[in-house]
Amino acid sequence: MPQKKHYIPELVIHDRNNLVLKYILVFFAISQCGIGVFQLKWSYPVIFGLLVFIIAYRDFGKMVNILPWIIPFLIVYIYQYNVYGGSYGEVGLTQYVFAVIRNLTPFMYLIIVGREFFKYYIRIIYYYSLVSFGFLVLSIVFPFFREFVRIGATMYSIATKYYVVEYKALSFFQLFTYTQKQSDSFFLRNAGPFWEPGAFAVYLGIALVMQYLYTHSLNNKYNVVFTIAMLTTQSTAGYATLMVFYMCALALSNHRLKVPYLMIIAAISFAVYSYAPFMKTKVEYMYQTQTEQDLQGITSGRFYAARKSINAISEYPIFGRGITRRTAEDAYSEFAGGYGFLNIPAKYGIPLALIYFYAFWKSLMIYASATHKGSNKKYVLLAILSLVPVFFSQTVYDSVVNLLIMQTSFLYHIKPSSPQVPEANVSGQAA
Q: What is the pTM of this model?
């Protein structure tokens, strides 16, 4: 069936078998990253059981491909338990099984949905963004609307005992989150469906760079909507990601006016960084206070956590410390990190972290090469640089979506011949 002209060719979903099922599963994957009830512990075994049931009738043999990640992960986890003893209590069979489930679930999503996973992801985040605009505008223009929904959510929580709580001046809802206007924000911040605006910025950032890896274009509706949504989060890291993304994307473009555009973007970025209350002033204050703070306090703050992570890397370089809370240092310890990509080698140890980083890079190469011939290293570098700010500010490296990105390289590879098209590592139907 011919596609309409307004479609973006690189983002068209070609394998339309089980389309509804795939949309549902990608929605589940996103939801497990931090959307209300889907983050409760019961969601993992329930969804895992569903995935096992589906895969049992399809491509269960592909599960063997994840062993190069699962086996080192288990070695490190077992070592941490036996050596560190579990600061938060005994680590039993249940904890081992749960840790394996958390690492297998993303791979199972990938097997079922296939290498077009992020085409579904981009669409779902796109529509989430549009809906969030409606909720945000209504909440700003009509304050009673926000209170009405808040009261309704609270009543629902009391009636069902499901995940609607007050925490740090924000309210958790089943599908959307609202946050208060803070002293360093211009207006009510948009958290979309996640637990805070910074988390929404992370998954918007992933959608932004993924659509760019597919299209190599800034001129499409997804880019516009993701950019506006990122701006409404008023997230410091999110704004930094936008600045890096647009500067790099324009530098890589062949547009005849790219130099003037670069100058305009640079000027806007400088102005925003200098005058937005949640940018320069906030960053400088956080850096000054958190770099001077004694490391025996509870881990809170990005720079403070980074210092603790660096300490942990130097103290536990091979096997890390704290893959789970039960093998972690006490929260007041100088080795208890918590935020950002520096916490990967801190928690996993350097060898396992290197596997993670290399697999993540290789996976982005696979997605970039899905629609474009030749070398895509410069575009993958753009993606990495753009994601650094949001990945520095949140603990999302072991979320379902990020583990799925990393695990892609265990299932697919790129043909050495041109054009470069990802191909399954095992025989059978390619997803």
A: 0.85
